[in-house]
């Protein structure tokens, strides 16, 4: 009997999968049995991740693709189908953030962030849908497919700036618009919204800020890429066949925290600060970027380091 979350013989792509959240998604799908194409602009690290996934006993290839480039996105989709025979799961996760106040924010940065996070996700959704619709025409039983986008809690709270928060709000509403249109093809379109995740995107976040985030999060620890493993497998599997147009918030309760009393703890959190950073340290090593024992390198995203240091009065 097929297990509920089994992805054996399913084929997936994950964009932005060289490190961070995308790598964790790719590993989770592979552990559930899927073959996974690791899609990214970082070829060296992406090849390493594909190699790591092959050790899990499934097929995996690295495919270079800038999700902002429609020609590269279509070529990537063709390559996935050529390599695996068909596409079942498209995880559109690649994203960037560029901090800065909106009153002096350069248009070029706005276009970069909106371009990758919003336009890039839409290009990948459309490319996946074209494959699913074409496959339905030859399948005896139209299987459709699963599209999973990465949005963010930033679609619900204003914690970054207009380009990032706005791009993620766009991803959530785009997900709903596409889910409404493509249900007729048996295509589910959903998104996952993480909170602050200890991926390389947060490699320049000071420990004082991590402590503050923990203290404002009911589950009491900082989110790790692997905390999204269960949610992505759920949305990729038959277990979620009647779930579409949903934004699955995975934030440890962080966005519930407009409370007047401080959060306390009766038992230690499930994850310790030492365990929180394992994936981050792995990724910094894979990127060949030096970091300290907390996985921190303030020069990796200096603008994030400087903004947090100024806000928290850290020298
Ligand atoms: N880290 C967080 O706190 C957090 C929270 C909520 C949502 N997110 C979102 O999750 C997603 C993944 O973030 P992460 O934390 O793993 O980031 P990360 O910076 O650690 O990794 C992002 C990966 O995407 C790749 N990438 C960047 N631009 C690309 C492009 N144009 N085409 C293809 N690949 C590209 C990078 O090379 C990298 O491998 C993003 O959409 C991000 O906005 C992150």
Helix-strand layout with pairing:
Layout: E1 11-15, H1 20-31, E2 35-40, H2 43-54, E3 60-64, H3 70-84, E4 89-92, H4 107-138, E5 145-150, H5 162-182, E6 187-194, H6 207-215, H7 229-236, E7 247-250, H8 273-276, H9 278-287, H10 302-312
The structure holds nicotinamide-adenine-dinucleotide (NAD).
Nicotinamide-adenine-dinucleotide (NAD) binds next to helix 1 and helix 4.
Spell out which ligands are present.
nicotinamide-adenine-dinucleotide
Shape: globular
Unreliable runs, pLDDT <50, ≥5 residues? none
How does the major sheet shape up?
Answer: 7 strands, parallel
State the CATH topology: Rossmann fold
**Cα distance, first to last residue?**
59 Å
- What is the number of beta strands? 7
User: What share of residues are in beta strands?
Assistant: 5-15%
- Secondary-structure-based class equals alpha/beta
Q: Which CATH class is shown?
A: Alpha Beta
> Helix share of residues?
40-55%
* Element order: H for helix, E for strand: EHEHEHEHEHEHHEHHH
- Taking all Cα atoms into account, the compactness measure Rg is 19 Å
């Amino acid at each position: 009997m097929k297990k509920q979350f089994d992805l054996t013989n399913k084929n997936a792509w994950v964009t932005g999968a060289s490190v961070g959240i995308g790598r964790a998604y790719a590993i989770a799908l592979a552990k559930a049995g899927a073959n996974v194409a690791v899609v990214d602009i970082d070829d060296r690290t992406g090849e390493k991740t594909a190699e790591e996934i092959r050790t899990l006993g499934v097929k995996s290839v690295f495919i270079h693709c800038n999700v902002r480039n429609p020609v590269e996105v279509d070529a990537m989709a063709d390559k996935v189908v050529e390599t695996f025979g068909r596409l079942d799961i498209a995880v559109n996760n690649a994203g960037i953030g560029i901090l800065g106040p909106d009153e002096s924010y350069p248009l070029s940065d706005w276009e970069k962030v909106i371009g990758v996070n919003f336009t890039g996700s839409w290009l990948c959704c459309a490319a996946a849908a074209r494959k699913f619709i074409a496959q339905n025409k030859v399948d005896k039983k139209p299987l459709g497919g699963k599209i999973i986008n990465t949005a963010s809690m930033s679609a619900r709270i204003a914690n970054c700036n207009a380009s990032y928060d706005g791009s993620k709000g766009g991803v959530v509403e785009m997900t709903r618009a596409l889910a409404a249109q493509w249900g007729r093809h048996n295509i589910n379109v959903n998104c996952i919204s993480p909170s602050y995740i200890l991926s390389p995107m947060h490699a320049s976040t000071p420990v004082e800020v991590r402590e503050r985030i923990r203290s404002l999060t009911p589950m009491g620890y900082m989110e790790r890429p692997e905390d999204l493993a269960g949610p992505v497998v759920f949305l990729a599997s038959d277990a979620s066949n009647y779930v579409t147009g949903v934004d699955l918030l995975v934030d440890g309760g962080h966005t519930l925290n407009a409370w007047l009393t401080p959060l306390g703890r009766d038992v230690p959190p499930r994850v310790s600060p030492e365990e929180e950073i394992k994936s981050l340290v792995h990724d910094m090593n894979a990127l060949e970027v030096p970091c300290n024992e907390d996985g921190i390198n303030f020069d990796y995203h200096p603008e994030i380091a400087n903004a947090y240091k100024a806000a928290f009065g850290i020298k």
